Amino acid sequence: MKRYLLRKILIYLLTFFIAVTIDWMIPRFMPGDPIRNMLTRVSVSSNATAIQQMYDYYSHLFGLDLPLWQQYLNFWKSLFQGDLGISTYLFPTPVIDVIKRAVPYDIFLLLPAILLSWYAGNKFGAVAARSKRLDNTITPLSYILNATPYMWLGILLSWFFGIILGIFPIAGAYSYSLQPSFSWKFIGSVLHHWFLPFLSLFMVEFGGQAIGMRNMIIYELEADYSHYLGTLGAPQKLIRNYAFRNAILPQVTGLALKLGTIVAGALVTEVVFSYPGIGYLLLAAIQNQDYFLIQGCFLFIIVGVLIANFAIDIIYVLIDPRTRRGMTGETS
Amino acid sequence: MSLQIENLSVYYQTLKGDVHALEDITLDVKLGEIMGLAGESGCGKTTLCQSLIYLNPPMKYMTGRVMLNGNELPIWDAEKMNQHRFRDISIIPQYAMNALNPIRKIGPMIRDLLTSKKVDYKDRLPELKHRLDVVNLPHDVLGMYPFELSGGMKQRMVMVLSTLLDPTLLIADEITSALDVASQKAVSELLVKFLDEGCCKSAIFITHDISILYQIANTITVMYAGYLAEKASTETIIHSPRHPYTKLLIASLPKIGVKYSEKHLKGIPGHPPLLLNPPIGCRFRDRCPLAFEKCTEVPPFVEIEKDHFIACWREGSHA
Ligand SMILES: Nc1ncnc2c1ncn2[C@@H]1O[C@H](COP(=O)(O)OP(=O)(O)O)[C@@H](O)[C@H]1O
Ligand code: SF4
Ligand SMILES: [Mg+2]
Predict the structure, then answer these.
(1) What domains are there in chain B, each with its CATH number?
(2) What is the three-class DSSP state of B118?
(3) Would you call B113 and A224 a contact, using CB atoms and an 8 Å cutoff?
């Protein structure tokens, strides 16, 4: 177990190192010049020497006038101090603060969507696997939901509920006329804005989970151990129970993987509903060529995905006796 | 009489049509008898045994009845059969290596199963442990997961589990096929031991390997393409078979016992017919050296001498 863990940790550290290095290269080797971009956008002056002076000033401020190896070392150093640089698009807000503002929205949107769709999808999938009638309704519905291009579903929902019926807002995380506060009014507004993006995510995820669970259970019910129990006259209840326990293992892994992507936000959802999470932020950063913000967003995503994968490795060891015993080398 | 099968026909329902896997089987197995069931792969051995205990789709019951200890088994009724499975009739399946739930420890799994059948696990535990001793498994296996056991151990575990409620009839489907010669012998001897100890009262032993049957079986039944070809005592089948197929089958084996290695392995030319749209008449006809006009009709399975049954127009009183 210990050796397994150590090896895994080593692999993850190496992956982290490489991913961060690539992330560091983004603003430095991408076509275009982040500083010049910022200056053109602000277009403070048409005086060439003045622009050059400002350019030098900002290059120095962002540490871009140093030799590359020095920049690279500094990058790691500030990384460990939680300093991801300064956003050029929202200058002079530090990138870390911009991201910190966005992350709660991602969690608030994605955590319930993932957990609830996982729970409901698996529940319905398991039921569909055992009832012909439900299988004939839930399964096609799930396939349709799952096959619907997400963008299309999102736009359809916001068009129908937001524009035709006009009962849900279609942009933002709360009403622009309100200031964030702990009032019922504000919380109500937040929930009101949250609902459509949540629903769209829930629907698509639900379909995928239900199909996955149904197919896994049917597969397990056809496995030899299920057949053997049948020949020994075990009641259907026991056979289904065993099949369910076997089928849920890969679903748990899937859940852990999904949870890991929370920090990456849901790009399409957040764009369709103008919901201010990391996904939306990333798009804004790209549109405004804010390389440091892009860099920061990617860094968050890298960390999130790595942690999720690591968690899966551990969870699998915990829930599946085959890996558990295999890892620890126990024999009895 | 332990088992009586009368005119049993079972088909497989497939998209292309019915596979005529089992036709008009009539057969007895006596108490204390180990009946060997032999025949080429695909001739219906597994189907025959599965239909006695777990006739599930795509298998389809057509005709016939099955009596065990004089009571009819409702083989066509999945629910009603449950009370007979495991208690009256049980099986060591062909896939014994994968027969145990991979994520449940063996002891708790047995407890789940017994509880579901209203049998007290604690009551049965001493006997379970005794039988583990018989098959030479440590008691620790009850605390292990199936993947911690070797293939042979898993098989012996399934053997113990399948016979735990002392069924009248035990079916062993190709339990030696995946094993090396030494373990084959050990496993087949265990089966005899189980019968002697009363863990089951009669057995059907399916195998390709007639030399094993020679050692343990009292009688041998030979199947061909869904029909019974011949049934007689082991001695008779090995030394004086009457059915043309049995003769070729026995001749194709390296001789055991008396006439040691007299003949080389001589395969039977041709292939068994496909059972989806099978040919009419005797299904062995196009491979049979003795076939004649009459063979376009199905030969009945009749007793030509005491306890010697055969389905062939060339033999017995019809010739
Ligand atoms: N699930 C199935 N669907 C259709 N045909 C089957 C199925 N299982 C077996 N069969 C057919 O039934 C016949 C008998 O098979 P089986 O009883 O497994 O033979 P054996 O055990 O003697 O090798 C074969 O011709 C086989 O092709
Ligand atoms: S009935 Fe005819 S074809 Fe069939 S085994 Fe006998 S002789 Fe051969
Ligand atoms: Mg078979």
Answers:
(1) 3-101+163-310 (3.40.50.300)
(2) coil
(3) no
CB pairs A-B closer than 8 Å: 77
Determine whether the shortest distance from the Cβ of B222 to ligand 1 is under 6 A: no
Q: What is the structure's pLDDT at B262?
A: 36
Q: What is the pTM of this model?
A: 0.83
Distance B21 CA to ligand 1 centre (A): 6
Q: Is residue A213 part of a domain?
A: yes
* Cα gap A216→A210, rounded to integer Å: 10
Is residue B162 within 8 angstroms of chain A, CB to CB? yes
Q: Is residue A112 in some structural domain?
A: yes
Mapped onto helix, strand or coil, the DSSP state of residue B308 is strand
Identify the DSSP state of B254. P
Alpha-carbon gap, residue A23 to A302, rounded angstroms: 9
* CB of B25 shorter than 6 A to ligand 1: no
- Would the CB atoms of B148 and A325 count as touching at under 8 Å? yes
Ligand number nearest to the C-alpha of B175 = 3
Residues of A in contact with B169 (CB under 8 A): none
The pLDDT score that the predictor gives to residue A264 is 73
ipTM strictly over 0.90?
A: yes
Helix axes of A2-29 and A291-319: crossing angle, nearest 10 degrees:
170
A225 vs B contacts (CB less than 8 Å): 98-102
Look at residue B259 in the predicted model and tell me its pLDDT.
38
**CATH no. for residue A110?**
1.10.3720.10
- Residue owning the nearest CA to atom 5 of ligand 2: B312
Q: CB distance from A329 to chain B under 8 Å?
A: no
- Nearest bound ligand to the CA of residue B278: 1
CB B124 within 8 A of CB B164: yes
Count how many domains chain A has: 1
Do the domain assignments include residue A244? Answer: yes
CA distance A122 to chain B (A): 19
What lies within 8 Å, CB to CB, of B257 at 6+ separation is B214, B238
| Phi, psi dihedral angles at B242 (to 5 degrees) | -115, -30
Tell me which residue range forms the domain holding A135: 103-331
Q: Which protein residue has the closest C-alpha to ligand 2 atom 4?
A: B282
* Strands (DSSP E) found in B115-271: 169-173, 202-206, 219-224, 227-233
What does the pLDDT profile of chain B (319 residues) look like in tens digits? 789 999 999 999 999 999 999 999 999 999 999 999 999 889 999 999 999 999 999 999 999 999 999 999 999 998 999 999 999 999 999 899 999 999 999 999 999 999 999 999 999 999 999 999 999 999 999 999 999 999 889 999 999 999 999 999 999 999 988 788 888 888 889 999 999 999 999 999 998 788 889 999 999 999 999 999 999 999 999 999 999 999 998 887 765 543 333 333 456 777 888 899 899 999 999 999 999 999 999 999 999 999 999 999 998 655 5
What CA–CA distance (Å, rounded) separates A4 from A328? 8
Residue A211 lies in a domain: yes
